[in-house]
């Protein structure tokens, strides 16, 4: 019975992640069109890295224009740093194997160390992924100019990606960050209003997962808009106060019946719902509805505390400037013990050993097709064991699903056609499915990225139709080897004894 209940909760949570959500159709359509544009241009000019181009659309294309531009700037910086690293290794150690391996080990160790101490590790993650992609080329490319030529093609793909993504967002009128924030705040306040009405009639509220997702995305967007000065500091603090109040209200509304308000509080909760409706109209739609303070707050402690926060935030939103904003202390980019804490060195050494172990296995077996084992080590190098394991599972599941879809297309569909239109229809269907999953919550989004990459690596192997399935088999083996290497490096008892146990993330 307990297993059946857990399975039901898991299925319910998965449905929550895959169910239609606001702006999900538009985001899926934008990603699909951008990926198809990139694929058509790359097929036309027979560009290398044919499967990588459409896949990068999933990373660079964001839900709002502001975040897309920010990611584009970061991508340029990542590409520049990766180019310097590749050129550095090529220049110093092209024909000296032992020196090249030593340089790679040092770069990966330093990169993992920075990933451990920096507040935004993805800035270092990108260059390490590109370096991993080029590592196996050091043993396969006959001369260094060919390697640098591939690096140039990678920059050409970046330029093509930016043109396709920005053009698609302009044609389809992608929302700005401020528009998305208003829509999310409108939904959050609407959910809070529904909580009051349902609680007034003794019914616990539903939809907790959707509200949590909206609140998390809204909080990130508020901070982003505050950092870019689109929102002033006072607006940021008041919006965050609204989010905290709505979240506290929802937590109170989903409590068991024993803590629900008494019948005498029904009218107070209905009055509170009407007040929230006026707040939504007054603040988010610009309506001139009067917004007087709540005359009587609900007496149930959980509701009372939530509405104190909401009333204070609502009054500040309507009559700003009454609450002083205390200046925040500047946060350091790195922790104070970045050079003395042995946990950081332990994490970097474990991840480096796993990565270089995969490289040694790939080289000794002369099996360059499994180079994804090194990339797997890089992208799953997370501090918390639970997050690391979750990302590994999503990577495996996504690669399997995308590979199966690609194999079905290669075996049953592509051999029946000899023109570009059917290929684009197949690519569009696979891209739309992967994009729909990638536009979900954090629990499934990464699996959508992996479905797309495995699908493209199977279908877009060459500029011409191909039925070779070695690529996807090698990718599956590489991912499994990379996951095993990371599991051994972070869990094997001998390594724990030699390196010391790393404390969990704070």
Q: What does this protein look like?
A:
The protein has 2 domains: 20-175 and 340-499, no CATH class; 177-318, no CATH class. By secondary structure, it is mainly α. It has 20 helices and no strands. The longest helix has 29 residues, at 65-93. Residues 321-327 and 499-506 have low confidence and may be disordered. 73% of the residues lie in helices and 0% in strands. It has helices at residues 2-18, 24-44, 52-60, 65-93, 97-117, 122-135, 137-140, 144-171, 177-200, 208-227, 233-253, 266-284, 301-318, 342-364, 372-379, 385-413, 420-438, 445-459, 470-491, 493-499. Helix 2 crosses helix 8 and helix 12 runs parallel beside helix 13 (301-318).
Please give a handful of descriptors for the protein shown.
mainly alpha, 20 helices, globular, 506 residues, single chain
How do you describe this structure in short?
With 506 residues, this protein is mainly alpha-helical. The protein has helices at 2-18, 24-44, 52-60, 65-93, 97-117, 122-135, 137-140, 144-171, 177-200, 208-227, 233-253, 266-284, 301-318, 342-364, 372-379, 385-413, 420-438, 445-459, 470-491, 493-499.
Largest sheet: none
- Principal-axis shape equals globular
Following the backbone from N to C, one meets helices and strands in this order, namely: HHHHHHHHHHHHHHHHHHHH
Strand content: under 5%
- Give the count of helical stretches: 20
In helices, the fraction of residues equals over 70%
Q: What gyration radius follows from the Cα positions, in whole Å?
A: 26 Å
- Give the termini distance in whole angstroms: 35 Å
Structural domains: how many: 2
Q: Average pLDDT value?
A: 82
């Amino acid at each position: 019975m307990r297993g059946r209940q857990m399975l039901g909760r898991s299925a319910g949570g998965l449905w929550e992640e895959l169910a239609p959500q606001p702006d999900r159709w538009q985001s899926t359509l934008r990603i699909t069109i951008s990926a198809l544009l990139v694929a058509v241009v790359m097929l036309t000019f027979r560009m290398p890295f044919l499967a990588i181009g459409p896949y990068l659309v999933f990373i660079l294309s964001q839900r709002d224009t502001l975040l897309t531009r920010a990611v584009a700037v970061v991508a340029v910086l990542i590409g520049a740093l990766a180019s310097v690293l590749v050129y550095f290794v090529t220049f110093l150690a092209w024909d000296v194997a032992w020196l090249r391996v030593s340089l790679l080990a040092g770069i990966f160790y330093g990169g993992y160390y920075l990933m451990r101490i920096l507040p935004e590790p993805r800035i270092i993650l990108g260059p390490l992924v590109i370096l991993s992609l080029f590592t196996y080329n050091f043993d396969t490319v006959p001369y260094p100019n060919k390697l640098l030529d591939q690096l140039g093609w990678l920059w050409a793909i970046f330029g093509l990606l930016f043109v396709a993504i920005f053009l698609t967002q302009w044609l389809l009128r992608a929302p700005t960050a401020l528009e998305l924030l208003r829509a999310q705040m409108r939904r959050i306040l609407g959910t809070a209003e529904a909580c009051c009405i349902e609680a007034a009639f003794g019914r616990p509220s539903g939809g907790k997962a959707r509200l949590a997702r909206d609140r998390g995305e809204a909080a990130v967007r508020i901070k982003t808009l505050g950092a870019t000065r689109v929102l002033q500091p006072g607006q940021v603090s008041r919006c965050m106060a609204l989010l905290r109040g709505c979240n506290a209200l929802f937590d109170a509304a989903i409590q068991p019946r024993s803590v629900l308000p008494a019948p005498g509080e029904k009218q107070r909760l209905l009055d509170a719902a009407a007040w929230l409706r006026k707040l939504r109209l007054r603040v988010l739609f610009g309506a001139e509805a009067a917004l007087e303070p709540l005359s009587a707050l609900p007496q149930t402690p959980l509701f009372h505390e939530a509405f104190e926060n909401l009333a204070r935030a609502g009054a500040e939103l309507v009559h700003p400037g009454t609450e002083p904003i205390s200046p925040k202390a500047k946060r350091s980019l790195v922790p104070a013990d970045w050079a003395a804490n042995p946990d950081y060195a332990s994490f970097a050494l474990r991840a480096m050993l796993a990565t270089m172990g995969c490289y040694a296995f790939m080289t000794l077996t002369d099996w360059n097709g499994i180079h994804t084992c090194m990339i797997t080590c890089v992208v799953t190098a997370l501090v918390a064991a639970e997050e690391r394991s979750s990302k590994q599972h999503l990577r495996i599941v996504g690669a399997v699903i995308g590979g199966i879809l690609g194999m079905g297309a290669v075996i049953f569909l592509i051999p029946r056609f000899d023109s570009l239109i059917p290929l684009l229809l197949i690519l569009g269907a696979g891209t739309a499915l992967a994009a729909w999953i990638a536009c979900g919550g954090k629990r499934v989004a990464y699996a959508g990225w992996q479905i797309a990459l495995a699908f493209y690596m199977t279908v877009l192997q060459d500029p011409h139709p191909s039925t070779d399935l070695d690529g996807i088999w090698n990718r599956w083996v590489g991912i499994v080897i990379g996951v095993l290497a990371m599991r051994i490096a972070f869990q094997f008892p001998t390594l724990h004894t030699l390196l010391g146990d790393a404390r969990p993330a704070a």
